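User: Predict the complex with flavin-adenine dinucleotide.
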Amino acid sequence: MSTVIVWFRKELRIHDNEALVKALKQHEAIIPFYCFEETEFGTTKFGFEKTGAFRAQFLIESVQNLKDNLQKLGSDLVVRKGNTAEQIARFTAEVEVSKIYAFKDIHKEEVAVQDKVEQLNILIDYSFGSALYHVKDLPHPIEDTPQVFTQFRKGVEKKSSVRAIFQTPEKLPTVGPNIDLGTIPKVEDFGLIEQPIDERAAIMAKGGEDEALKRLQHYFFETEELSYYKQKRNGLIGSNYSSKLSLWLWNGCISPRQIYWGVKRYEKEVKSNQSTYWLIFELIWRDYFKFISLKYGNKIFCQKGIKNKVYKWSVDQKKFGQWARGRTGVPFVDANMRELNQTGFMSNRGRQNVASFLTNELEIDWRMGAEYFESKLIDYDVASNYGNWMYNAGVGNDPRDRYFNIILQAKRYDEKGKFVKIWLPELAKFGADTVHHPWTKQEDLFGKPELDYPAPLVEPEYWKKHY
Ligand SMILES: Cc1cc2nc3c(=O)[nH]c(=O)nc-3n(C[C@H](O)[C@H](O)[C@H](O)COP(=O)(O)OP(=O)(O)OC[C@H]3O[C@@H](n4cnc5c(N)ncnc54)[C@H](O)[C@@H]3O)c2cc1C
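Assistant: Here is the predicted structure with flavin-adenine dinucleotide placed in the model:
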């Protein structure tokens, strides 16, 4: 009886898991395997931790939950840490394995890992499961992925369909008694310092498939917040202004198809409106960035982006540090950055504004911002992160101008300054009229030694008409 490995990578779930289902169909001895890959824990080019403490903790919880769920089905999870190819080589030196089932990745570092595993000369059966639309179902070859999102969306909506999800197995074969299962590491084992999520967080993110499915149930069927998604998605405070499903999508604790079919069920059983459609619309954005990454490969990491556009970028460390710490003196930027630093999450509205501020106002190399996000975000996803950063920096694939007027945005989306005051309590005494530009209240509050808040790094002329 031949033994096979199901190598879990960014699909840390038992639902809608093609690799697992395929292995189960064809083999009687299956060993689920996960390796905390060492290259995911190095430093980025600009010197940030590649995976910060929040994401590391979330990943650990996700792997623990996967192990628990596999045990419930009668199986288990072999866990290793280090160089994945070496760990698989060591494992297969002790246990004879005839095949590896895995999901194929498309990004530079992940591909480097999978290339090394391929060199082990064990047959690999790949699945593709991180996108809503299967790559084979696209209405065009990858190299013809449209330059503009709307064209891509219209194409897939008209000509492609979302596949059904794979059923969760009811039972799995046991993992042999002589197998060293290994242990799940702790955050400190990666040289990181554990950081509790600040209680002001929009959501107390916890990793794992169970949490992901619970969140979907809560946001869709318990609260029916999905019916109001389109109106509320630009919110900044609380857990329900948006789905927060990105937290579990990045490492596959939930599959995009599971969400899609959840929306379809909701539309049948509860309500179908613009909001329910809009969640799918946003998932198509996620797909778009994935397929753009696949089309352009490593170009998404280049300063000139996929547009090959040359701008003069600064690498001013001092200004960058102020941006990263939330000390630019521009409250809307600082509040969002502090939320990121203390919770590992930031709203989409916040991300757009801080990215625009860094690239358009400070003219700092967009890749520094992208790498900082990579380090801090729990939901860091290569394609969505680099795709959105390129897009905001004007080197991506959208013809529109992504210039954000921070003061106008702050007043529109945080009218009374509530969000800003959550993260910048030092501005509590400022009224709604000045909290987004406290420097204009020079005469009494601003500039006093007791106010520990800096003057703005920049003050573009065009802000002034919105004071
Ligand atoms: C500079 C910048 C960097 C970003 N980096 C990431 C990242 O690393 N990982 C990530 O998942 N998203 C990223 N986003 C996209 C977006 O901000 C997040 O997906 C969203 O805020 C997650 O919250 P949510 O799940 O509540 O989203 P919802 O509004 O509930 O949307 C549902 C889902 O749609 C997808 N989605 C929504 N907006 C986008 C978008 N603009 N691009 C791609 N997918 C989208 C996400 O998968 C999200 O979970 C980035 C956006 C910007 C502007």
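Residues 233, 242-246, 249-250, 279, 282-283, 285-286, 289, 347-348, 351-352, 355, 373, 377, 379-381, 384-385, 388-389, 392 surround flavin-adenine dinucleotide (CB under 6 Å).
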